Amino acid sequence: MADTIGILHRQAERDHGGGLDHAISVYGGDRTDWIDLSTGINPHPYDVAGLKNSDWTSLPDNDAFSRLCDAARSFWSIPDSASILPAPGASAIIARLPALAPPGHVRITTPTYNEHAAAFLAHGWSVKESSPAQARVIVHPNNPDGRIWQEADVDAPLTVIDESFCDICPNATLINQTERPGVVVLKSFGKFWGLAGLRLGFAVGQPDLIARLNELIGPWAVSGPALRIGEKALRDVKWAEETRTKLSCDADRLDKLICDKGARLLGGTDLFRLYHVSDATAWQSKLARSQIWSRIFPYSTNFLRLGLPNKCDWDRLEGAL
Question: Is residue 14 over pLDDT 90?
Answer without folding.
Answer: no
